[in-house]
Amino acid sequence: MATAVEARAPSAWEDGLLCALVLVPTSFSRNRCFQLYQRAELARVRRRAARIASAVAQLSVLPGEAPPAVRETLLARGERGLSYSLPASGLLRHLTLGPLEHAALEVALARARDAEPPASARARVEEALLQLWRPPPTPPRDATGP
């Protein structure tokens, strides 16, 4: 029996949106793109992007700071576990990232460090960004609505 709220894979357009929001967080403002702030599935994309962007901010160290201790593990279905600690604040954080989320993190970290991202991560992110030229998917119709 299907549940009322089923987990679904994000669309290609949502993957492109994720990458855009990680790399340029101000690219889709609430005033210009109000639809993105009304739909639940796009709210999930914004939360995923914010989680990655916060990790980028925490892992981008300033000159003279101690670099965070980072540990990566390969999980099932191509996911990666990322754990890091920031000694100055005592923060210990664990993230589970899908392949695209990990690629977006790698590209964003490389940009923050003024370095070249891994070619495979860059290609994956660029492929996702190309999906944004299409119009966003239409929201599913409510079975109880008109």
Descriptive keywords:
single chain; alpha+beta; 3-stranded antiparallel β-sheet; 39% helix; 14% strand
General description of the model:
This protein is of the alpha+beta class. It has one domain. It is built from 4 helices and 3 strands; from the N terminus they run H-H-E-E-E-H-H. It has helices at 12-23, 40-59, 99-112, 119-129, and strands spanning 69-74, 80-86, 91-97. Strands 1-2-3 form a 3-stranded antiparallel beta sheet. A hairpin with a 5-residue loop joins strand 1 (69-74) and strand 2 (80-86). The longest helix has 20 residues, at 40-59. The radius of gyration is 17 Å and the shape is globular. The protein starts with 11 loop residues before the first helix and ends in a 17-residue tail after the last helix.
Please summarize the sheet with the most strands: 3 strands, antiparallel
Task: Write down how many β-strands occur, each being a DSSP E stretch of 2 or more residues.
Answer: 3
Distance between the termini: 25 Å
Order of helices and strands: HHEEEHH
Indicate how many domains the architecture comprises.
1
What is the SS-derived class?
alpha+beta
| Multimeric state | single chain
- Strand coverage percent: 5-15%
Gross morphology: globular
Helix content: 25-40%
